[in-house]
Amino acid sequence: LSLSLSPSLSLSLSLSPSTLRAAARAARTSRERARRCGLQHMRRASLATARRASHAALAHHAARRLCTATRLADPSTMVGRLQQLQAGPWWRTGLMRLGGMFTDAQYQAAAGEDIHGICRRRGDLSELYDPSSGGVDASRFYTRFQVKGLHCWLVHVRLRPLPRERVEALVSEVLERLWEYDGMRDAVEGEGLELIQALKYQKELQLSWHGMAQALDEALKQPAGGPQAEALAEVLLRNVYADEEGGIAGSAEPAALWLAEYLLAQMSHLAALPDDEILLGRLTWAPPPPPHASGAELRGDEAEAEQAAGGGR
Predict the structure, then answer these.
(1) In what residue span(s) does the Ubiquinol-cytochrome c chaperone domain sit (predicted)?
(2) Number of domain units in the chain
(3) Is the pLDDT of residue 44 over 80?
(4) What is the crossing angle of helices 141-159 and 104-122, to 10°?
(5) Could you list the residue range(s) of the whole structural domain that residue 52 is in?
């Protein structure tokens, strides 16, 4: 190898073949390392992009909650209180964020508590117990519980098509409060049961509710309209209108059909509500359907018969 440094000075170098091969290997190794480093950099960049997209989605949902909080936060609801806390100054919310106060699971739990309260209050609707419409026996703790449980089932049916991760904690909170408040606590405070008795009764209520819910789900598979309403009414007769011995009065049939139509009306109403509103614990109910004229006439005939029998005695 000749190297000319200037017209008056030249330098001759002799490189052996082994030295040239070593230099070639070193060059190939250097290129391979550069290629690997480039691939690793691309992988890291791809992962970082995916993480940024995930964080952006979470930030988007959080921003929507914050925007909703500034306009619609209701301090009387658990979700509203959570929104107000999250919208507070950073120095107040920093530790709360670190503690997981504003995660999606926390919002679901808060929404579940609010929705349970809505279901519980709706379960006291007078038309559900009025003999001319729903005709449910209000004197029995079991039937009052089942009516509240029906509204929780309606919420479950509405949320069932949504992704599980968006509703799992919410539905769980609704049902836990159904067992705790409408089941055990009302049994102790309202019915005077001892705690051990209430715990045993709570298990029975859970089994009965799950059985009723499964039967109602099967009834929904019937064709819409009359067949579906009749199938629901059959389930309600067995689970809401039957007495302690399993007997069903003749007057319960039109009442069960009215209650079935009530459930279908609520399902249609809930289906029209936006998902995001329900996931924030905001739902409303449809007005109850009018009483069945046939049911009212049947009850009137029974009342007249009872009065006549009483007058004869």
Answers:
(1) 141-285
(2) 2
(3) no
(4) 140
(5) 34-88
